Amino acid sequence: MRFLSVLISLLLLTPSAWAQREAAFIEAPSPDDALAIAMAGPELPEAATALLGEAASADLARAIAAANFTGEAGVTATLFSGATDFGEVYAIGIGPEDLRLRDWEDFGARAAGLAKLSGAERVSVMAPGASAEELAAAAGGAMMGQYSFDKYKSDAEPVTGTIAFVSDNASEAQRSYDARRRYLAEATLWARDMQSEPANVLYPEEFVRRARALFNGVSGVSISVLDERDMKRLGMGAILGVGQGSTRPPRILIVRYNGGAAGDAPLVFAGKGITFDSGGISIKGNSGMWMMKADMTGAAVVTAAVSSLAKSKAPVNVIGVAALAENMPDGSAQRPGDVVRAMSGTTIEIMSTDAEGRLVLADAVWHAQEEFDPALLVDVATLTGSVGRALGDEYAGLFAREDAIAERLIAAGDASGEDLWRLPLHPNHDQQIKSMIADVKNADTGAPGASTGAAFIGTFVKPDTPWAHLDIAGVDWRHEPQPTRPLGASGFGVRLLDQLARDSVE
Length: 506
Ligand code: BES
Ligand code: MN
Ligand code: ZN
What we know:
alpha/beta, binds ligand BES, binds zinc ion, Aminopeptidase, six-stranded mixed beta sheet, 19 strands, single chain
């Protein structure tokens, strides 16, 4: 029995090999390839005409017209032509405007979408005029766009082959990809795997194990983990209260990457890592509860962002703090009405055991400030349903005390393609979380829920700590696909935090 259960867990624990085409860079396509061509308008680019020859180009021009393809950005077409040697030809509209790197990511993801239709071993993608950096971004997009979590599907077909971006200087594009975009895409896929993994497999200790594996052999990184004994010693009553209703003990994982100047104050990213949020005694309804396996998205994306920065040797000092617990309602669970004392000394009346994310973060952000004196503290959390109702799928909620910090984050969101929208943090929100019998309460029945959640976390952020709070509860899981974000786990935040860290040293 024991042997069998060990065997089964070993099988379940094997990391998901991303079943997808590899990205590559080549100087010229071969006629065995399927061919995808970036088009800014209805006319084939010159480089494509030169490659295909006159007769085939004329035939393709007819196919383009027949498909009513105008090169509009985001529109793709499958072109049928017997006149070319290439078995399959696709067109990808990029429009007349210059593309930003985030748009090149989308372009690459669209190429990957077409590659899914193709039986060819290699799909060559021509985007004449694109720079090495732009093609590298496209390749990253192709990796992110192909994602699906199918390790538990018995009949999943292995996906093989490559998506090859054509460049006059393929080795430079490859270098650019290997310098950053590869790690960014891999970190995003890792975060998505963590989000998708069911909670019977992924619990706090398993999260830690996988994080250690992620950083195995990466230089400049040190990892430490707080267990329950450490938490008791430090007086972390808030995270301990959340974890006490589960048979899976809580953990705080701390990953430090020192790539910047010694002594430079670090950026600290703190993530909510509830490996399952049942609501606890304030139990949730069953509808959609399965999705609460992804309530550790914040923890996954902060860890993943540190990995992409460390693996690409970014010149920054950055620390990821993952506040990990499972929120369950067993006989030792905390109750509404309980009072706990956080590490900061602040007492908290538990109004809802379902407002647990702010509790684990209360201790994590306090500890991070005491230990690391951050140059900037950003916490990332699937904190409230309220933020999703306000902002939908398009933006994560951003809360900051200072305009300059809000602007920095919005700029990083805009550049990375993970957009933020600022929501209010008003002194009145602090009044709303005053408790009758303790210093604060963890939930208020009134609106605005996303802001009172932010205000609660702010209670544990010192007035002089530069701080931003990101509520990603609306954007952590895609219900409608986007090019680089297929259905399901989005990994939202990895690209944003990576960008923010790089911007901070420019
Ligand atoms: N994890 C949830 C928030 C959430 C909701 C994430 C939907 C993703 C999708 C969080 O712990 C929670 O339960 N929040 C409560 C707070 C309330 C009790 C103050 C909520 O938003 O209802
Ligand atoms: Mn909850
Ligand atoms: Zn939660």
